[in-house]
Amino acid sequence: MFAAIDAIHFKNFYFAKLLILFEVVYLSFFICAIMNVMPKNNLERMIQLAEEFFATKDDPSQISINRKIMLKLERIHPSTMMEKKTSKGPIAWILVIPTMHKLMEQFVARKINERELLDKTPLRVKYDSIYLCSALVLPEYRGRGLAKSLMIKAIKSIQKDHPINCLFYWAFSKEGKNLASSVAKEFSLSLFKRP
Fold first, then answer.
1. How far apart are alpha carbons 85 and 100 in whole angstroms?
2. ∠ at Cα 94 (193, 131), nearest 5°?
3. I need a labelling partner for 175 at 20 to 30 A (CA). Which of 28, 41, 92, 184 fits?
4. Domains of the chain (ranges plus CATH)?
C-alpha cells in the first residue's frame, strides 16, 4: 500500500512540475508575442509577407492558399507552385496558373475574379495561357532574380505539356509589372494586364 501511495504521489509531483514548466514556456511565448519579438522562421515570414501585401483574408475574390487550393493547383500542373529554399526555409515563392484563353479574356476584362479563374479552370485539358499569379521574395533576397528564375522554370515545365501562347497578370506593384514584362520577353509571348 505504501509503494502504491508513493507512486501516485510521485506521478502527481511529476505532473505538477510539467504543468508549471508548460505554464512558464507558454507565458514566455505569450509575452514575446505581445512584444512582437517572437523569432520567426522563413515560412512564417513568407506567410506574413503574403498577407500584408495581398490581404487575401480580407478579399474573398483572391486566391488564398490552403490545402484544398494546393491540391487543385497540383492537379492542374505540378509546376504551378515553386519555391527557393535555404536551410532556414523558403526565401522565394511563385504561383502561376495555366488556364484557357477564354478565361484569361474574362479575367482581364474583370468579368471574373481570381478565385473564379481558378475555380473555372478545367482539369485534363490543353492550356494555352498562364496567369502570373504571385511572387514573393523575402526582403534580404530581393534583386537577385529569384522570382524571375522560378517563373521561367515553372513556365518551361508547363510548356512541355501545354501549347502556351500568352501570359497575363494583375499587378499589385511596380515590381510585379516589371517581373511580368521581363518574363514575357524571355519567352517572346504576348502579355495581357488586368487593369
1. 31
2. 30
3. 41
4. 61-193 (3.40.630.30)
